[in-house]
Structure formats: structure tokens, C-alpha cells
Amino acid sequence: MNPRKLFAEFLGTAFLLIGVVGSGIMAQTLSDGNIALALLANAIATGCMLYAIITTLGPVSGAHFNPAVTLAFALRGEHPWSAVAPYVIVQIAGGIIGVWATHIMFDQSILQSSTTMHRTGGAQWFSEIIAMLGLLFVIFGGIRHKPDAVPPLVGLYITGAYWYTSSTSFANPAVTIARGFSDTFAGIYPGHIAMFIVMQIIAVFIGHVVLNWLFAETND
């Protein structure tokens, strides 16, 4: 396995979590209790970070930064199965390191466990299916019709999905796991992580069927 690709996935996922958690801490600090304003700042910063890391690291590793996306590409035959586990391992590790780096930046305890209890229930689980399907939709639709637009498409989609999904669109198992290690605005209680990931993986298999059909190359 190419170490440059693995390091790119590690680094990109770390920066993604720095964007998510860091902007969440800053937004909560400066918003004076205004949750809507904090979420807006968190969403914009995350979308900007996604645009930056996908643009710069896409040519190196494909810019997955997401075990569900890696699985989706493998199912399509566009990523070797032998490279799935290494990608997933470095994505999860990068996410956790990104969270810890953010805690250091904001002078917080490095080791934390989230106590955010409201990220659970059928509505939010279903929301994660929609969030993940939407992410795969813009990725594979963008690749099919306008590959150069994939970075802004993903960044804009996640920025919007923070607002129009009840779960605030985690849509990424590595992000979900890493956010369990941060007792901040962006955190998720560790006991709620498993069902979020199950829903994200379900969405990958739904998307594999639906999106492959939708974006198939045809003459009609």
C-alpha cells in the first residue's frame, strides 16, 4: 500500500476533524449561547475545510477521508479491496488525532469523552441515511458529469446538510467515532455512535444500487 496515499488520508481526516471540532468550540465560545449562530459558523467552516482538503489531497489519495466513501468506491470496483482496511484505519486514527490536536489548540483536556446525549432516536438515524446518500449522490454525480466540481459540491452539500438534516449530517464513520472523543459542541455520546455508523453503511449499499443505475453511462 502506497504510504503517501495513507498519509494523505490520515492528514486529510485529521484536518477535517480540526475543522469540525475547532469551529464548534470557537462558535460556541463567541455565539453567546446562540445555537443557530454557532451551527452556522460550524457548518461554513466544515464546508470550507472539505473544499480545501479534497482539492489538495484528491490527486494523492482520492480524498475519501471517510470509511463509508472508501467502501462505496470499493463496491464500484474503483478502489482495491486490499486497500479498504488500511484506508479505514488511517482515517479513524487521523480523525482522533485531529480531535486531540484541536483540544490542545483551545487549551482543553486532550482526552475527553462526549456527554452530548441528544444524538439518537429513529429520526436522527433515518437522517444519517439521507445525509450519507446525499453525500454519495454529489460525489458520484459530480464524478460522472463534472469531476472538477467535486470539491465544491461536497463542501456545499455538507454545509447545507448541517441545517437540513436532524442529525446535522455526520455522514462519515471516522468523523462519528472521533467526535465521541470530544465533549464539546460537536460531540456525540459514545453510546450513540454505533447506530449512526450502521445507518451510514446501510446508505452506502442503497446508494450502490440506486446511484450506479442513475449515473450509468448510456446512449439514451
TrEMBL record:
The chain crosses the membrane at residues 6-27, 34-54, 84-104, 125-143, 163-181, 193-215. It comes from the Bacteria. GO terms for cellular component: membrane. Its main location: membrane. It is a multi-pass membrane protein. It is found in: Membrane. GO terms for molecular function: channel activity. InterPro entries: Aquaporin-like, Aquaporin_transptr, MIP, MIP_CS. Keywords: Membrane, Transmembrane, Transmembrane helix, Transport. It holds the Pfam family MIP. PANTHER family: AQUAPORIN NIP1-1-RELATED (PTHR45724:SF13), AQUAPORIN NIP2-1 (PTHR45724). Belongs to the MIP/aquaporin (TC 1.A.8) family. This is Aquaporin Z. It comes from Falsiruegeria litorea R37.
